[in-house]
Design a protein that fits this description.
By secondary structure, the protein is mostly helical. The protein has a single domain, classed as yeast vps74-n-term truncation variant domain like (yeast vps74-n-term truncation variant fold, Orthogonal Bundle), CATH 1.10.3630. The chain has 10 helices and 4 strands. The strands form 2 sheets. It has a two-stranded antiparallel sheet. The chain is globular and about 55 Å long. About 35% of the residues are buried.
């Protein structure tokens, strides 16, 4: 099974140009949030509640063996090697070189290819246009069923939608529908009761941390215009 972060990265790369659909600040945060959310869905991590040894809201790791997937295992190690972290701090820890690892995975799977060039003949650029769209198409079909047809999403599809909603990218990923309706439906799913209480708290914290990465650069740009 692919990671949520792999599917999210595929969705957030334009198939033709290979360029990310969202800003360079938001993308790494969204991918790290997807990893943290994957760990929460698997019962590996959860926010502490009232009356626990760890301060409420800080992340608690389970005593189970770490996940076999090296990206998830690396994220667990970073969380474990730190004092109890808030979800937003954990996202910053997980973010380190994550995008490079995920890009290499989807290249190795044959879904995208790496293309290097130069902007204005001077500045080096790298993009990742699609090669084999079959997996992404299947993921996108599930998203479309939930966002356009009113189908009840699976837990993983709902998690993807919540991440897309946090970076305001659901209409970009499903461009053929009514933009406003898709955005509204994505928010409804993101705020819905598709996960247990512990995962729900993680979802809310992850989405809040990702939104900060989107809002702050936009606010700074607006202040300098």
């Amino acid at each position: 099974m692919t990671l949520l972060a792999e599917d999210l990265l595929l969705l957030l790369l334009d198939d033709e140009s290979g360029k990310p659909l969202i800003g360079s600040t938001a993308l790494p945060r969204a991918l790290a949030g997807a990893v943290l959310l994957e760990l929460a869905l698997g019962g590996v991590v959860r926010p502490a509640g009232e009356g626990e040894e760890v301060k409420k809201g800080r992340l608690v790791l389970s005593d189970d063996a770490p996940p076999e997937d090296p990206i998830l295992a690396g994220a667990v190690a970073r969380i474990r090697d730190s004092k109890p972290l808030k979800p937003e701090s954990a996202i910053e820890k997980i973010d380190q070189r994550l995008r490079e690892a995920l890009v290499q995975r989807i290249v190795d799977r044959g879904w995208v290819r790496e293309s290097n060039g130069r902007l204005l003949g001077i500045f080096p650029t790298t993009v990742w246009p699609a090669v084999d769209e079959s997996h992404e198409r299947a993921v996108r079909d599930e998203l479309g069923a939930a966002l356009m047809d009113g189908a009840t999403p699976t837990e993983r599809t709902a998690a993807l939608i919540s991440l897309l909603s946090a970076v305001d990218a659901a209409p970009k990923v499903i461009p053929d529908g009514d933009r406003r309706a898709i955005k509204k439906r994505a928010k409804e799913i993101a705020d819905g009761e598709w996960a247990g209480a512990a995962v729900r708290r993680t979802v809310e914290a992850v989405n809040a941390a990702i939104m900060v990465a989107v809002i702050i650069p936009a606010t700074a740009a607006g202040g300098t215009s």
